[in-house]
Structures are given as structure tokens and as C-alpha cells.
From TrEMBL:
Annotated protein name in UniProt: FAD-binding domain-containing protein
Domain FAD-dependent oxidoreductase 2 FAD-binding: 13-42
InterPro entries registered for this protein in UniProt: FAD-bd, FAD-dep_Monooxygenase_BioMet, FAD-dep_OxRdtase_2_FAD-bd, FAD/NAD-bd_sf
SUPFAM superfamilies xref list: FAD-linked reductases, C-terminal domain (SSF54373), FAD/NAD(P)-binding domain (SSF51905)
FAD-binding domain span: 158-340
Signal peptide: none
Key words of the record: FAD, Flavoprotein, Monooxygenase, Oxidoreductase
């Protein structure tokens, strides 16, 4: 575990976006000795969002920051299910069909589930106040440029800032993606939407039907029904409550987090369900209606001269049922930072291409799990569950969670670097493309 930064590489990196993807890319670039700064659209830090999940593969990354101190700060804000586990109910009868135990937490790779805004604040402050990474707020970046030698961004003042590499970590509505692909990649409806809410336990605790969730520490329950699932957790010893309901929705495509939802619509979906679900939902002061969009995997995350790279949601949005969107954004940041150090200042475009080769297939496979888990739940065969209750468990696969992005990048870098820089030495090398990608007519 290292806390001090590596020797300076002289590589200058601009990161656009200060979400978990952008912050991790910046923190890891700092750790690997690069000179990094962030440009972010929001003018001030706000505690936005609700529940977000980080797998052990993210916990391992957090743990390397400040000798475990950042992981410790995050852990304090997160749900602790070590004794409660995850109770999975049948939607109508409410019976618990499977009680999934919580795997033992590894101190150096904790699983972290908590309020997105609270966790984000910890990471943001660590980057800005402790590592002194310059974070320029109130800077919407809508123009990018590059040539063989450098890349840059245009600020709203018209000022041009240049660097060896620009990392576009600007989320699902990415502008950087337009430059990389050469066209605007419109999201499609996934056919599903999520209602989500986060609120204090004040009313929950007064109602005997819901009190049990708030007086015995943290809890996590899921109700699985026909093409719908409802997840409910209590956090901070039962003080905060949070639920997420995924349901069919073919309406407008919107990738916003703040679209208000209506309780009456939720009640309609919950007709015929275990009354506990409605008893929980009734306590909700306000909720968000978030349409789940889908994107086919982008053909490339790398610009023509390989000096602009997309990471996180701008490259690959995830469905919440994968519980890996933020974690995969973090793995991106770790990987590019390692590749840049290993390749050196004179080989930045090669580093970027190696990053893409390392990350692309893994991300695609993890993305798929969002669909498979949703389908496993939404098309449940209850006879099969009666015989094999584990078949309804939330999958926690080792190939996802045991992965150490930093170690992996270090191990495979040399081989892939050779393939990228000297393809003629190999037979049948098939490398991923760089943009812009011609649009098929
Ligand atoms: C406000 C907000 C709330 C969220 N709440 C949740 C939640 O409750 N649960 C959950 O699972 N996920 C949530 N997410 C999404 C989740 O954080 C991401 O899916 C995941 O962490 C991957 O992060 P990312 O850094 O790639 O993208 P994001 O987290 O979307 O970060 C992108 C960043 O880029 C900035 N940006 C965008 N365009 C520009 C531009 N032109 N110039 C400069 N900066 C720009 C955005 O302001 C944002 O800070 C939320 C995202 C946001 C932005």
C-alpha cells in the first residue's frame, strides 16, 4: 500500500468531471506522479443523490489512499449488514425465500454502500484539501481539441488549457464522447425506470408495521415480483431509510437524477404486493423518477490521436442491478494512471490505447451482469426458488470483486504495450479502434 506519490513523470493530465470517475482518475494520476487538474461543471459541492454501491474491487482502491484512512472514513458512513444480511421476499406473500449472508469483509477491500453525496464529499475533500489537486468548479467544458502532440479544452472564458492527455469523465451526457466518436451517441430506453428515495426514519419508527427496520441496526430487504423489484435498506443504525423500485417504463428517455416522481404511481405498481412495501413507501417525503437508459457498448473510448480518453459513465453507463457503475469508473482511473507511468511522457497515446485494451472486455462483461441480474429477478421461477433458494441470491462473483485493477494493469502492461506499439511482431493482433468512427449508413 502506498500513500506517497511516485516520482514525477512530467505528464500533464486534465480531467473533466469530478464524479467518482474523475476524482479517482485524478487521485490515481497524482499517486502515479502525474501533474493533474480537474475542471467541473458544478459551481459548488452539494450532497446529491441517494444510495450508491461500491464493490470490494473499489474498496481495494479506496484502501490505498492515505493508508486506509479514506476507506475508514467512508466505512463509517456506510451500511453494515454483517449481522443482518440480505433478506429476499416473494412479492405477494412477503415470505423470506432466501436469507443471503453478508460475505466476510476484508479490511483492505471493504464493500461500501452509502449515500452518494456523503461519500462523494469525502473523496472530493481528500483530492482537493489533502492532496491539493486543483479542482476548478463552475467550468462547463464543451469543446475539446487535440493533435499528435497534445490535447486540450476550451473554458467558458475562451481560455484554452492544454495537456498531454484529457480524460473525459463527464458522465452520461458526455460532450467529450462527441469528439471521440465523431457523432452524438443517443441513449435508448432500457424499458425500465427506477423510483428512488432517501429519508429519515421519523415516520417509520412511529408505525408498528415498519418500526422493526429502524430499531435493530442496519437492514436490507428485497421484494422480487413479476418484472418489478423493490429494495429497501436502513442505514446508520436504522436512522436513514432508502428504497429503490425498478419497474417497466417506456416513457421519455432522461438521464437526470432529479426528475421528481409521484407516490400514486408507485402505489399502482405495488397493488397486490406484501402490504409492508406500501407501508414503507407511504413514509416517503419525496422521490426521484429515473429512467434507465441503455447504450450499446461504444466502439471506442479513445480519440483519433489517442490524447482524449473517456472514462466512467461517459464511456460505459451501467444498470443499477450490476451495482458496479461507480466501481468500474474507479477501475478506469486506476488503470490509465498506471499505463501513463509505465509508458512515460513520450508514449502517452500508446498508454491510452493500452488502457483501452486492458479495460474494454472486462467492462463489457460486468455491464452485462446488470441485465442478467435484473432478468433473474424479474422472471423468477418460484418453483425453482423453492427447490434451490440460492438461485435468487444477488450474485457476487469473484471475477468482479476479487479484481485488483492496479495489480492487473502492472502485470499485463508490458505485453499489451508491445502489441500496441509493434503489432508487426505478432500474428493476428486485433486491436480496438480509435475514433472518430464512421457512422454506418
Ligand atoms: C448529481 C449526481 C447524483 C448521482 N446519484 C447517484 C445515486 O444516488 N446512485 C447511484 O448509483 N449513482 C448516482 N449517480 C451516478 C454515479 O455517480 C455514476 O454512475 C458513477 O459514479 C460513475 O461516475 P462518473 O464519474 O463516470 O460520472 P458522474 O458521477 O455522472 O460524474 C460526471 C461529472 O462530470 C460533470 N460534468 C458533466 N458535464 C460536464 C462538462 N461539460 N464540463 C465539466 N464537467 C461536467 C458532472 O457535473 C459530474 O460531476 C449520480 C450522478 C450525479 C452526477
Amino acid at each position: 500500500m502506498s500513500t506517497t506519490s511516485a516520482p514525477k513523470t512530467g505528464i500533464k493530465v486534465i480531467v473533466v468531471g469530478a464524479g467518482f470517475g474523475g476524482l479517482t482518475a485524478a487521485i490515481e494520476c497524482h499517486r502515479q506522479g502525474h501533474d493533474v487538474s480537474i475542471y467541473e461543471n458544478f459551481p459548488e459541492l452539494k450532497t446529491l443523490g441517494d444510495i450508491i454501491s461500491f464493490g470490494a474491487n473499489a474498496g481495494r482502491i479506496f484502501y490505498r489512499w492515505s493508508n486506509g484512512e479514506i476507506a475508514r472514513r467512508l466505512r463509517e458512513l456506510c451500511i453494515d449488514l454483517s449481522s443482518y444480511g440480505f433478506r429476499i421476499h416473494k412479492w405477494d406473500t412477503g415470505e423470506v425465500v432466501y436469507h443471503q449472508p453478508t460475505p466476510e469483509q476484508k479490511p483492505d477491500a471493504p464493500v461500501l454502500n452509502g449515500h452518494r453525496g456523503e461519500l462523494h464529499e469525502v473523496v472530493f475533500r481528500y483530492a482537493r484539501d489533502e492532496l491539493k489537486i486543483p479542482i476548478h468548479l463552475g467550468q462547463p467544458v464543451n469543446e475539446y481539441f487535440e493533435d499528435e502532440n497534445q490535447a486540450g479544452i476550451v473554458l467558458k472564458s475562451g481560455e484554452r488549457v492544454v495537456a498531454d492527455l484529457v480524460i473525459g469523465a463527464d458522465g452520461v451526457r458526455s460532450k467529450a464522447r462527441e469528439l471521440v466518436l465523431g457523432y452524438v451517441d443517443k441513449p435508448k430506453s432500457s424499458g425500465y425506470a427506477v423510483w428512488r428515495a432517501w429519508f429519515p426514519n421519523t415516520d417509520m419508527i412511529k408505525d408498528p408495521r415498519t418500526r422493526e427496520f429502524c430499531i435493530n441496526g442496519d437492514t436490507f430487504n428485497g421484494w422480487i415480483g413479476p418484472d418489478v423489484h423493490f429494495l429497501f435498506s436502513t442505514i446508520k443504525g436504522g436512522k436513514d431509510c432508502c428504497w429503490v423500485l425498478t419497474h417497466r417504463d417506456e416513457h421519455d428517455i432522461d438521464e437526470s437524477w432529479s426528475f421528481p416522481g409521484k407516490l400514486e404511481d408507485v402505489y399502482k405498481v405495488l397493488e397486490g404486493w406484501d402490504p409492508t412495501c406500501r407501508a414503507i413507501v407511504e413514509k416517503t417525503p419525496s422521490l426521484v423518477d429515473w429512467k434507465l437508459v441503455y447504450r450499446d457498448p461504444l466502439p471506442t473510448w479513445v480519440s483519433k490521436h489517442a490524447r482524449i480518453l473517456l472514462v466512467g459513465d461517459s464511456a460505459h453507463p451501467f444498470l443499477p442491478t450490476s451495482a458496479q457503475g461507480a466501481t468500474q469508473a474507479m477501475e478506469d482511473g486506476v488503470t490509465i494512471a498506471v499505463c501513463l507511468r509505465r509508458a512515460g511522457k513520450n508514449n502517452v497515446p500508446a498508454a491510452v490505447r493500452v488502457h483501452q485494451e486492458i479495460r474494454y472486455e472486462r467492462v463489457r462483461l460486468v455491464q452485462k451482469t446488470g441485465e442478467t441480474t435484473r432478468d433473474r429477478w424479474h422472471k423468477t421461477d418460484w418453483e425453482k426458488v423453492a427447490k434451490d433458494p440460492k438461485s435468487i441470491a444477488f450474485p457476487r462473483e469473484d471475477w468482479i470483486h476479487q479484481h485488483d485493477a492496479e495489480k492487473h494493469a502492472e502485470e499485463v502492461f508490458d505485453d499489451i504495450f508491445k502489441k500496441v506499439t509493434q503489432p508487426e511482431l505478432f500474428e493476428n493482433v486485433k486491436l480496438l479502434p480509435v475514433g472518430p468512427i464512421p457512422v454506418a449508413v
